[in-house]
Backbone:
């Protein structure tokens, strides 16, 4: 049993719904109790879909358990087929139906429907949403994609785009950018799936020369299958950021046998110039904590460090399936990855890393708000805010432009930061007033409170090391000096100094200790 | 027409014969776990621990948008494969989780173990767990109820929760003077308004279930007279009856007429003189009348279709039909409790189609065919119906918004009028 106050991912059948809802002509019959229908509102409210998800729930109740829930499933299945006339159906169980072991796959097969019926085994007590989406897409592709007659030699290159789903983080807009790049390279698109594809479209996946995998979380398993079964290679580069996009363009061009130069030498993104412009100097070495699904966490870690000059002080994901990749990336930055789906662990890791910017999910946005840190949302789980009316991709060159803005806006503008430092003693500009763009309520920082007259006795440090017997005390002059340090780095200065003193078992932090620590930890 | 009656319990001529249908197909309703969203805010030192699956956790956070809370007073103990395979003892695991929780939150005085579909199916005995944990945890009272979808529909979760509180309510002395108990979670502001009116009527000893904190739960006994403030409290009423309390039959306090009838039931039971009753309610009735006036034009003659949701549908329909002159196309409700709703059913226009239960796709067919002016439905249906050109009102807001009593009658009408007003405003 795991105590969960909040969860990054839903159960695996939600992943299956994300695939079914993205597609056309597919229907999902889900053996599930009354109440599981809440899932519809994720799509109709968060994503503002104008259609109900193509899902029929059996909505069994306690009284049905004593009778025949299997019959209920068969009836629901037959009625769904008659009413919606889908090209294909997927059938499966949610967590409760899994326990009553009715075998939806076998029951649906017994109905002998005149369409492909694909059973899904999504173990709800082991797996989660992204795995469910990946498994569902893989099962569909495995069942429906068949070898297709080769096109005549000399045809324009043709590819499939795999991965975008319903309720995906900016999938709608990313897809537009990927299609733009492919079109500029002279590559035609055969099928986009799951988003917008019908089962009949999946049947002709084999016509393409190769597959573009946008989101490994949802599409890698299907792409690996197509590689084995239909000899289609697939992309591995993720076009997030300028570097990621250029690598993606080169990879795609090589797979298609076309020249990447027209795209690589084209207009590209504004990010490189914006990042090199002198105004961006203040971004150098900003401490950033990145957390999200693996694709976005890895992509953003690279953008933040290589394209904006930030320092990565934390990296993590809730996608355990991709823990290896994330750990490797973290190691390259000399840090340890946070692999967890417990947001309290993530919050603790953020606190410990003392970042100046958090890039995360909606939950990290709340954590950052509590810690008084600027934050940008870069990954699912999605929120209604993650479906903006405007075009707002994360991928491709336009995506890189969006990321520059997304990562820089939450931070204080460089000049503003200098002004804050210069005027910090002014009455309307004192430390207790948080940056105006972080909301109206002032951020309460312990350092912001005027509390130490020069003659007062040393104040105890707020936290003493639980393991050590040392009680840290600040000498009044050191405390006073600390307050001269701009407040946005003061917290870090305090904790570094205390760490320095603790390691050396210094009972009193003096002015000298403060500057010794500064030299020790100096960037 | 449709002026609020001052003697509302007398059915209007020609009313009372509804056209009742029953359906048993796919339902689009929440399960009882959803009630946690408002119950945890009502009982401020209670914590709700769902013993369930990842689906349960996902449902509650989706329904509640819980990311806004730093530390919400509800959580899920997610059963995993180790528990199911018997590798871990579910009871030991539950004790461990509960102990960790209480350690983190020493402010919690009442812990509800909330059963879910999976915990019911694997027959995890939460009542024994609650007894065991009460003994173990010392200062925390541990109770249990089921909010599972296989047993409860949406608001029945509140019923199950309140029913679980009843056996532990303090015992009222047999010779105690009669007291009035208002049953069902209401917004604090509504409770306070009702307290003032009861006080003006001369009923001084008025209590509420649930109380705002665990230590203040009301005593009950043979001299307790109770008024249901919500129409979905079947189990709670039964449990109160077993404690010797007596239910006062009444309509529900939605709209001016319902509120007057509800208060009148108390007045009759406590022998409040007619003049005193008139004096205590006159100002409220007048304010409700003023507030409702403009809505008769906005909602009068509008055809309304209710999908089943909270069991509030019958009283809400009665309000719309009688106080603002709307027409009822179909009144869907998950269950129709004929005894508790007797006064309401009598007041519905003759021949009103009431559908108990649901067959979702068939009901959608009827709704599309009828093309009502306003469709009251759940969040899963609202946007798709709007996209088909039907104006909708999300039903869940009717539970999260204070709508009971005279001073909320106008607010209640506004909830129905707003979607229509907004459509009229937009030129895109």
Residues:
């Amino acid at each position: 049993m795991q105590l969960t106050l909040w969860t990054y991912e839903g159960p695996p059948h939600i992943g299956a719904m994300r695939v079914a809802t993205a597609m056309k002509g597919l229907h999902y019959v889900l053996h599930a109790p009354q109440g599981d229908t809440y899932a519809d509102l994720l799509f109709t409210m968060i994503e503002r879909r104008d259609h109900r998800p193509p899902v029929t729930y059996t909505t069994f109740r306690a009284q049905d358990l004593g009778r025949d829930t299997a019959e209920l499933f068969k009836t629901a299945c037959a009625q769904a087929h008659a009413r919606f006339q889908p090209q294909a159906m997927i059938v499966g169980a949610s967590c409760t139906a899994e326990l009553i072991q009715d075998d939806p796959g076998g029951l649906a097969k017994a109905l002998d429907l005149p369409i492909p019926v694909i059973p899904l085994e999504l173990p709800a007590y082991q797996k989660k949403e992204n795995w469910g989406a990946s498994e569902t897409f893989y099962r569909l592709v495995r069942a429906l994609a068949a070898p297709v007659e080769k096109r005549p030699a000399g045809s324009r290159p043709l590819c499939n785009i795999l991965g975008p789903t319903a309720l995906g983080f900016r999938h709608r807009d990313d897809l537009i950018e990927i299609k733009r790049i492919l079109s500029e390279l002279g590559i035609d698109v055969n099928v986009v799936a799951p988003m917008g594809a019908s089962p009949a479209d999946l049947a002709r996946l084999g016509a393409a020369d190769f597959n573009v995998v946008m989101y490994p979380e949802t599409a890698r398993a299907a792409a690996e299958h197509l590689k084995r079964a239909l000899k289609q290679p697939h992309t591995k580069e993720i076009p997030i950021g300028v570097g990621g996009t250029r690598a993606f363009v080169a990879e795609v061009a090589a797979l298609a046998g076309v020249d990447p130069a027209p795209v690589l030498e084209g207009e590209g993104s504004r990010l490189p110039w914006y990042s090199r412009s002198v105004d961006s100097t203040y971004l150098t070495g900003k401490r950033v904590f990145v957390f999200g699904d693996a694709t976005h966490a890895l992509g953003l870690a690279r953008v933040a460090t290589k394209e904006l000059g930030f320092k990565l002080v934390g990296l993590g994901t809730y996608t355990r399936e991709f823990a290896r990749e994330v750990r490797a990336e973290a190691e390259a930055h000399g840090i340890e990855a946070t692999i967890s789906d417990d947001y309290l662990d993530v919050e603790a890791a953020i606190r410990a890393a003392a970042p100046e910017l958090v890039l995360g999910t909606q939950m990290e946005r709340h954590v950052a708000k509590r810690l008084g840190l600027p934050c940008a949302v870069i990954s699912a789980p999605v929120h209604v805010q993650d479906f903006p009316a405007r075009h707002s991709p994360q991928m491709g060159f336009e995506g890189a432009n969006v990321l520059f803005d997304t990562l820089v806006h939450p931070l204080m503008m460089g000049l503003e930061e200098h002004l804050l430092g210069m005027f910090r003693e002014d009455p309307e500009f004192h430390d207790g007033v948080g940056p105006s763009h972080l909301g109206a309520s002032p951020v309460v920082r312990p350092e912001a409170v005027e509390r130490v007259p020069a003659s007062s006795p040393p104040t105890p440090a707020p936290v003493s090391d639980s393991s050590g017997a040392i009680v840290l005390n600040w000498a009044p002059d050191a405390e006073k000096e600390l307050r001269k340090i701009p407040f946005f780095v003061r917290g870090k200065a305090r904790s570094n100094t205390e760490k320095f003193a603790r390691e050396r078992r210094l009972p009193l932090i003096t002015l000298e200790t403060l500057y010794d620590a500064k030299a020790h930890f100096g960037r | 027409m449709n002026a609020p009656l001052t003697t509302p319990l007398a059915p209007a001529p020609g009313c009372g014969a509804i056209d009742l249908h029953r359906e048993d197909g796919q339902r689009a309703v929440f399960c009882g776990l959803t009630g946690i969203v408002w119950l945890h805010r009502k009982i401020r030192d209670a914590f709700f621990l769902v013993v369930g699956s990842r689906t349960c956790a996902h449902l509650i956070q989706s329904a509640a948008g819980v990311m806004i809370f730093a530390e919400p007073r509800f959580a899920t103990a997610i059963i995993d494969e180790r528990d199911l395979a018997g590798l871990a003892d579910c009871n030991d695991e539950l004790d461990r989780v509960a102990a960790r929780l209480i350690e983190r939150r020493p402010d919690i005085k009442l812990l509800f173990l909330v059963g879910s579909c999976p915990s019911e199916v694997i027959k995890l005995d939460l009542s024994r767990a609650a007894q065991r944990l009460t003994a173990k945890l010392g200062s925390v009272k541990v109770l249990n109820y089921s909010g599972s979808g296989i047993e409860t529909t949406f608001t029945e979760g509140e019923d199950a929760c309140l029913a679980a509180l009843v056996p532990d309510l303090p015992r009222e002395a047999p010779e105690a003077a009669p007291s009035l108990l208002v049953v069902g979670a209401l917004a604090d502001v509504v409770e306070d308004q009702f307290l003032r009116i009861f006080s003006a009527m001369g009923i001084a000893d008025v209590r509420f279930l649930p109380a705002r904190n665990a230590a203040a739960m009301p005593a009950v006994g043979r001299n307790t007279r109770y008024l249901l403030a919500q129409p979905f409290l079947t189990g709670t009423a039964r449990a109160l009856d077993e404690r010797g309390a007596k239910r006062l039959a009444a309509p529900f306090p939605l709209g001016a007429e319902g509120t007057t009838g509800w208060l009148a039931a108390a007045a009759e039971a406590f022998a409040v003189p007619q003049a005193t009753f008139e004096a205590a309610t006159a100002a409220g009735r007048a304010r409700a009348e003023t507030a409702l006036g403009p809505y008769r034009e906005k909602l009068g003659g509008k055809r309304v279709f209710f999908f089943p949701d909270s069991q509030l549908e019958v009283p809400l329909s009665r309000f719309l039909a009688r106080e603002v002159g709307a027409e009822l196309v179909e009144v869907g409700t998950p269950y129709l409790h004929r005894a508790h709703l007797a006064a309401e059913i009598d007041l519905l226009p003759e021949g009103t189609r009431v559908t108990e239960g649901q067959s979702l796709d068939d009901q959608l067919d009827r709704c599309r065919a009828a093309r009502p002016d306003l469709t009251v439905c759940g969040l899963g249906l609202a946007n798709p119906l709007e996209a088909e050109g039907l104006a909708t009102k999300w039903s869940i807001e009717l539970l999260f918004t204070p709508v009971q009593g005279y001073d909320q009658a106008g607010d209640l009408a506004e909830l129905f009028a707003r979607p229509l007003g907004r459509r009229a405003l937009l030129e895109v």
